[in-house]
Amino acid sequence: FLRPQQAQPLAGCKLLITAGPTHEPIDPVRYIANRSSGKQGFAIAAAAAAAGAEVTLISGPVELHDPAGVHVIRVESAREMLDAVNAALPADVAVFAAAVADWRVESEGGQKIKKGAGAPPPLLLTENPDILASIAKREQNRPPLVIGFAAETEHLLDNAKSKLARKGCDWIVANDVSPATGVMGGDRNTIHLLTRAADEISVESWPVMSKDQVATALIARISKAVRTTES
Ligand code: CTP
Ligand code: CA
Fold it and tell me: In what order do the strands lie in the sheet with 93-96?
């Protein structure tokens, strides 16, 4: 028998989650993308809803169904994702699981680029807005708990620690995405959770888990943190 607080530890809590890749248009028929499947972010949204939270999931293009009880907003590009995130605030907790494209093409072609007799067209890139950093550094409506991911192929903990500081978030969920791990597109994930309290960073290393188990464990940690702040 579960007391209501145990069954629905996030009842009354508003969670905002980003997931999936973004697509950055080159011309009307082509885009830049990455290998993110969206599975981890969707699993976190489902686990949060199961814990009683009110969940808004803002996702780039993925082939996944809406999780039960989750409000899903589908976007294409990083700039659309940023606008949707800003519109979804305020939130109690924000989890940025999306693999946002770091760059977009500087000027999108209005027509399909055609092959010519000359050299292939150069793609001039410009940096996308950093959605996590812009929310973590907001003066107004900053969610009390802002959680980022760090996808790394080398120097995992060092890179994750500097990301935590640089982006101004509270926690970083660091995962090794080097090809041998099969994390990108796969069903398993190896997580190191970095949490920051004042200037002290703590690291918890979790065993290899399915992405669903990672979601459940993360939601349990979030529930604990939310309860501690409330009491
Ligand atoms: N992120 C974001 N907006 C971006 C880039 C990243 O919100 N334009 C978020 C991701 O959702 C993730 C975190 O920032 O929560 C870290 O993303 P990552 O790609 O690992 O870090 P970057 O800062 O982009 O650095 P790099 O890709 O060079 O490692
Ligand atoms: Ca990046």
Answer: 70-74, 54-59, 14-19, 93-96, 145-152, 171-176, 191-197, 200-205
**21 labelled ligand-binding:** no
Closest protein CA for atom 9 of ligand 1? 132
Helix (H, G, I), strand (E, B) or coil at 103: strand
ipTM of the modeled complex: 0.99
Mutate to test the pocket of ligand 1, among 96, 135, 177 (most ligand atoms within 8 A of CB): 96
Q: Which residue ranges have their beta carbon within 6 Å of ligand 1?
A: 18, 78, 96, 98, 100, 102, 128, 130-132, 148-151, 163
Is 129 annotated as belonging to a binding site?
Answer: yes
Query: Which ligand places an atom closest to the C-alpha of 128?
Result: 1
Separation of CA 131 and ligand 1 centre (Å): 8
pLDDT tens per residue across all 231 residues of the chain:
666 666 899 999 999 999 999 999 999 999 999 999 999 999 999 999 999 999 999 999 999 999 999 999 999 999 999 999 999 999 999 999 999 999 999 998 889 999 988 888 889 999 999 999 999 999 999 999 999 999 899 999 999 999 999 999 999 999 988 877 777 767 888 899 999 987 789 999 999 999 999 999 999 999 999 988 766
Q: Quote the pTM value.
A: 0.94
Q: Residue 139 is inside which H or E element, if any?
A: none
- Residue identifier of the C-alpha nearest atom 16 of ligand 1: 150
34 as an active site residue: the answer is: yes
How many other C-beta atoms lie within 10 A of the C-beta of residue 23? 20
